[in-house]
Amino acid sequence: MIRARDIVKSFGTNRVLHGVSLTLRKGEVVAVIGPSGSGKSTLLRCLNHLETIDGGSIEIEGETLAEPGADQRSRYVPDAEVRRICRKMGMVFQSFNLFPHMTVLQNIIEAPMTVKGMAREAAVPIADALLRKVGLLEKRDNYPSRLSGGQKQRVAIARALAMEPDIMLFDEPTSALDPELTGEVLRTMRQLADDHMTMLVVTHEMGFAREVAHRVVFMDQGRIVESAPSEEFFRAPQHPRTREFLAHML
Ligand SMILES: Nc1ncnc2c1ncn2[C@@H]1O[C@H](COP(=O)(O)OP(=O)(O)O)[C@@H](O)[C@H]1O
Ligand SMILES: [Mg+2]
């Protein structure tokens, strides 16, 4: 579903991704872990073109998003193609990013109506079904300010799903939440995984990485240091830096 090869990304003179390669297969749940500043968010943002890459290539469901030109700098396909390809991916951020001036329902139907041109009559039943799925149908007419952090994040997940993505990217979806609210969000994500959604999840939740993810990728200083099936990753981490990180986290 995603094939990224040798991604290089700098901000000014600061190189933050030093040739990162990653594949994500259909139905696979991959957890990305690593210390703060290691480039996890940048990697996710590069995959769905919230950042542009300097080097390397990205393919989404077999379609090229960017690949190196003759000078080795990455070139993107035309804008309309980039937008169409990136629509296959939904993203959930640490900070929810709901529209504060819209109700829960309006938040969810906005993109299907404006981006996909869906009629309101078609978008509303889909939104209701998604709200039921994340357990928040009774909040559909509330404004985000009336919701808890956990509820906001579940709405954000429903909003991303409303665009019917094939792949979901999560960037520390529970890091902004009080500990007692992380469970409800993790349960929603686990449910998505059980429904065979393809997911790439940056997280500090080692329980989720261990129990829900099929594979764990450990990043440090802009590189993937280790990648292994989750059971193996936690049982027998190979790299000293992985072991050191896990010793701090577990
Ligand atoms: N928009 C940006 N402009 C400049 N530097 C950035 C930007 N985004 C991230 N960085 C830098 O890139 C590095 C990796 O950041 P990030 O991808 O957010 O790491 P992580 O998500 O693993 O904490 C950090 O040094 C950070 O300061
Ligand atoms: Mg981050």
TrEMBL record:
PANTHER family hit by this protein: AMINO ACID IMPORT ATP-BINDING PROTEIN (PTHR43166), GLUTAMATE_ASPARTATE IMPORT ATP-BINDING PROTEIN GLTL (PTHR43166:SF9)
Organism: Cupriavidus cauae
Residue ranges occupied by any ABC transporter domain in the UniProt entry: 2-246
Family note: Belongs to the ABC transporter superfamily.
Alphabetical list of SMART domains matching this protein: AAA (SM00382)
Keyword Membrane recorded: yes
Major location (coarse): membrane
Subcellular location: Cell membrane
GO molecular function, one term: ATP binding
The name this protein goes by in its record: Amino acid ABC transporter ATP-binding protein
InterPro entries: AAA+_ATPase, ABC_ATPase_HisP-typ, ABC_transporter-like_ATP-bd, ABC_transporter-like_CS, MetN_ABC_transporter-like, P-loop_NTPase
Topological relation to the membrane, as annotated: Peripheral membrane protein
Gene Ontology cellular component annotations, sorted alphabetically: plasma membrane
One Pfam family it belongs to: ABC_tran
Superkingdom to which the source organism belongs: Bacteria
Keyword list, A-Z: Amino-acid transport, ATP-binding, Cell inner membrane, Cell membrane, Membrane, Nucleotide-binding, Transport
PROSITE patterns: ABC_TRANSPORTER_1, ABC_TRANSPORTER_2
